[in-house]
Amino acid sequence: MSELLEKPQPPAEGECCDRACTPCVWDLYYAERKKWRLQQVELQEKAANQKDDD
Residue 3: is it exposed, middle or buried by C-beta count within 10 angstroms (0-12/13-18/19+)? Predict the structure, then answer.
């Protein structure tokens, strides 16, 4: 597995300019959050598998 990802923080108030930028800071946040959540699922599955092996 690659490095452990930190849980991303949503953009601060005022960081989004509401001008439909591409990519928007919210797009970047959601993409990073998805990566983090997938990694969390992977870690949970790995821990469950190790527990089953014990």
Answer: exposed
pTM recorded for the entire structure: 0.81
CA within 13 Å, CB half, 50: 6
Place of tokens 């800071």: 25
Q: Please state whether the peptide bond connecting residue 11 to the residue before it is cis, i.e. omega within 30 degrees of 0.
A: no
Measured distance CA(24)–CA(18) in Å, rounded: 9
pLDDT in tens, 20-51: 999 999 999 999 999 999 999 999 999 998 87
Tokens of 6: 């930190």
